[in-house]
Amino acid sequence: MYEEIDFTRIIAVSNRHVSRLPYLEQVERILSFHPKAFLLREKDLEESQYLDLAEKVHRLCKKYRVELIAHYYPEAAERLGVDALHLPLWKLEALAGGRDRFVADRKIGVSVHSLEEAAKAVGLGASYLTAGHIFATDCKKGLAPRGLPFLKEICDSVEVPVYGIGGIRLEPPGIAGVMEQGAAGVCIMSQMMRM
Fold first, then answer.
1. Could you tell me if 143 and 150 are in contact, meaning their C-beta atoms sit under 8 angstroms apart?
2. Using an 8 Å Cβ cutoff, are 69 and 39 in contact?
3. What CA–CA distances, in Å, run from 154 to 8, 86, 135?
4. How many Cβ atoms sit within 10 Å of the Cβ of residue 62?
5. What's the number of CA atoms in the CB half-sphere (13 Å) around residue 167?
6. How far is CA 73 from CA 15, 32, 91, 98, 145, in A?
7. CA-CA distance, 187 to 85, in Å (whole number)?
8. Are 154 and 130 in contact (CB under 8 A)?
9. 121 forms bridges with which residues in the sheet?
10. pLDDT tens digits, one per residue of 139-188
11. What are the b/e assignments for 73-108, b being 16+ CB within 10 Å?
């Protein structure tokens, strides 16, 4: 069913609230397809809860040799020994523009929603961007998608890899359409958590 999909272009994004299987079983299923990375984005967890879950997910990522990207908590990334950390732009700004000791030597991803945000994130040291939301998605109910032209503008405006996010389906034509805009890949949450 998924044979035609190049999973090395997909950053799988975590959301345990929509997981089809018990969460860690679903994570293992996702990792068995060897995506480019697994972004552990569980926004409702306090840091200690996040770290507890991250330790379990990190073990699975090591087993399948898939990069784990920590989210939001720089100290958790450091404790895990994880090289990649994804932050909202405001948090990167608050961490002294990437000069904070927790982020200085890490690959930093930043979510952006405009050309201005993209330029600011790169100026603060972002290693890659996620830009969206590209298509309509239940995660952003009521908000109009920004579309493929928006993604192309972002890709054309920065020198770092850009990943489209939002409403992207786990289907070759949709992924190809995003890649044609100059994106390095895609981020997929709902369909990965339900596969």
1. no
2. yes
3. 21, 18, 15
4. 11
5. 17
6. 16, 26, 10, 13, 28
7. 15
8. no
9. none
10. 656 677 788 999 999 999 999 999 999 999 999 999 999 999 999 999 99
11. bbebbbebebebbbbebebbeebeebeeeebeebbb
